[in-house]
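User: Sequence for MaoC family dehydratase below. Tokens please.
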Amino acid sequence: MQFGRSYEEFEVGATYKHWPGKTVTEYDDHLFCLLTMNHHPLHLDTHYAQETTQFGQNVVVGNYVYSILLGMSVPDISGKAIANLEIESLRHVAPTFHGDTLYGETTVLDKWESTSKDDRGVVHVETIGYNQDGKVVCIFRRKVMVPKENYLEARGGEQPGRPTPVPDRSWPGPATAG
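Assistant: Structure tokens for MaoC family dehydratase:
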């Protein structure tokens, strides 16, 4: 399975549909809120949300929605990234609720070679996230520095840094056909 792309593999206009989706549970949302110290009752207090908000239920915290979608995009977009350079824009356009399943897709808006190092380039992408009904809930644009093929080749190829298993007394080495 491919994990990320080199600069040469990105095409302007290409859209990558991220798989699988992620169903957001109440536990996921509450844990994220507590870990990040976001104690807003809209996210944590069911009674408050039912009685005092237009939604009538808890809303999943937006940073968790963004984080899920960003994570979904890694195998297709930034799995080989040298750096995430910029989050240009982030818009939450509709609420996400407990029990919703999020899906995402990313479109390549532009790409250009680095002006300072010839072994990398920048890819400008837009990711949209939508729920099980196809309702778009989040849109963000970012710029990612990605390696060119020569960068990867100089550092070990497709899976740089991956060690080779070393035979010892508990494992004598690869089995040979016989």
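The CA atoms of residues 57 and 169 lie 59 Å apart.
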